[in-house]
Please model this.
Amino acid sequence: MALSIRDLSFRYGATPVLQGLSTGEVPRGALAALVGPNGSGKSTLFRCIAGLLKPQAGDVRLDETDLASLSARERARKVFYLSQDTEARVALSVFDIILLARKSLHQGFALAASGDDMRAVEDVIAELGLAAFASRDVATLSGGQRQLAAIGQALVREPDVLLLDEPTSALDVRRQLDVMTAIREATRRRRIVTITAIHDLSLAARFADRILLMNGGRIAQSGAPADVLAHPAVSETYAVGVHLERSARGTLLVEPYIRSD
Model:
């Protein structure tokens, strides 16, 4: 039971972005970190998985189901893509935006929420530790709190696949840990497939079960963090040297450096 991408190709006009990209299997309950330089195609890959872009070749399968065979609504129920932009545009509480996300999946916005909807929202708020902020306007929250609320909007829809585009960008160290811990725990508890694009290689190594190293529209390496980050492809991809070591707590630390050669 897994997500797999095989020979995926996509281009904007005459410009190729994804070129025969394959990931292997990312199993349910696993958090995969998608890493690679800016412009390597990470956001385009997410949009192809979510069905927002149609690839010219290849397929995306979830538990052997080709997602391209599903209707747009069916695919939206299975895959949730959370882009980098989580700025609040409406004056609503955390509870209300999560409830609206739930209602958008099951019924019209104008209809009253069902008991199941209310329980689902309450469960997600408890799961993400948002109870203290549930009644607050989203616009008044810190960046980390707002990011958790956005993840709550995703989880309340009960997706099978969660795609997160740089969920820790612009967050301080503590909020990065809070958000990544919540993502990892929710992924395991709900037995979903989560892929998160992330630039911090040490953060990826600390939280991910699997790393997908992207370069030139392809997956250059994939596997366990220690194996991928020790591979020469990392230095080739980023044009830097990479030093790995374990902290006293056993955490894998990644130190990139500019090579003199």
Notes: The longest helix spans residues 173-190. The chain has nine helices and 13 strands. Residues 2-223 form a domain with the Rossmann fold fold (CATH 3.40.50.300). The mean pLDDT is 92.
